[in-house]
Amino acid sequence: MNSSTLEPQSGDINFRDFTKRRMLHVVLPLFIVSIIAFLDRVNIAYAGLTMKENLPWLTPEVFGMGAGIFFIGYVLFEVPASLIAARCNAMHWVARIMFSWGLVCILMTTMTTELEFYVYRFLLGLCEASLYPVIYSLLIPNWFLPKERAKAISLMLTSLLFSNIIGGPLAGILLDTTFFGLHGWRTLFIVEAIPAVIFAFIFAFWMKERPEHASWVTDVEKVYIKAELEKEEQQKQAAKKYTIWQAGYSSEKRNEKRWHVATTLFIGTIGFLATPHSPSPEVSLFFICLTAVGVYGGMGVWWTMPTTFLSGAAAAGAMGLINSSGNMGGWVGPYMLGFINGHTGSFAYGYYVMGACMFLAGLLILTLPKSMEHKED
């Protein structure tokens, strides 16, 4: 992180050491939370490989509906839960999220009916709602200054890629493992749920909501970062006020961020459009990786945009709205691809549609106004 502009105002603070400690005590626990959350969210896809053996009523239609009901609970409670978190201790709220979704995952091992399947999937979405908005809008902004947040969020977001790497192999092992008499999908659910329940307590003691609550932050560092964050808040209060629903019409304050995000989206567009025409699996893998660059490359910068002009409940609510809208894609996307494939007989047109959507997202990023500038720049 660029600390050269900070040091003249910061006394005797060792920024390199302070950054390392924040990475250890803030980014690392959030990184672990994100890994556990992602594994528990997607394990239903792997569990479905063996669930049919014990649950004869689990038809493809029932399974698809249950998988999608997760997003109904998530979307309905994303904004309200984010607003509640902004009014209480955000760190304790994240711990509560982990504990509750871990319990629901454990309860899923007991389901025997179609209704229970739907209820547990709905509750899982409800319990996990607001996790990422709280992290992006409350916890990280409490610990990192505006110039530092993109890097901190980007590092935390690599947890999603790491989860993708370990998720499949781990699920394969657990599906063939017997755990206290449980086998197959039940083992997968309970073994991946236990870390959430346990780490909820570890997180509550490890992570602190603000620097002034942490013993590993020196008095000089506490005074400095508090003063800088108060200065940032004053600048936001002096600017135009936005409601949650108006937040989408505002933008980040520097043109470089807009192009950083838009460029990665355009790269991802190329990956989507080229994948169906790959002459070999190796080339196809290359373009899929290119698509992943487009999806994840600019995400760290993109998530910092709302917090440059929103804070507290407004930031939490806005990010909840953004995240819940994005999660709708997790439900609509698979159905859209199935619909396109059913009417065309090819998945290629699905890739074209997704590429067009990604290109449109890049254009929308560039339409955001660039008139607002950081006062500290």
Explain this structure to me?
By secondary structure, this protein is an all-alpha fold. Helix content is 73%, strand content 1%. It has helices at residues 15-51, 60-86, 90-107, 114-128, 131-143, 146-175, 185-206, 219-238, 255-274, 281-296, 299-302, 312-344, 348-367, and strands spanning 178-179, 182-183. The two termini are 15 Å apart. Mean pLDDT is 80; it is low at 1-8, 242-255 and 371-377.
Topology:
Blueprint: H1 15-51, H2 60-86, H3 90-107, H4 114-128, H5 131-143, H6 146-175, E1 178-179, E2 182-183, H7 185-206, H8 219-238, H9 255-274, H10 281-296, H11 299-302, H12 312-344, H13 348-367
Antiparallel strand pairs: 1-2
Helix pairs in contact: 1-5, 1-6, 1-7, 2-4, 2-5, 2-12, 3-4, 3-5, 3-7, 5-12, 9-10, 9-13, 12-13
Name some characteristics of this structure:
mainly alpha, disordered C terminus, about 375 residues, globular, 13 helices, two-stranded antiparallel ribbon
Quick summary of this structure?
By secondary structure, the protein is an all-alpha fold.
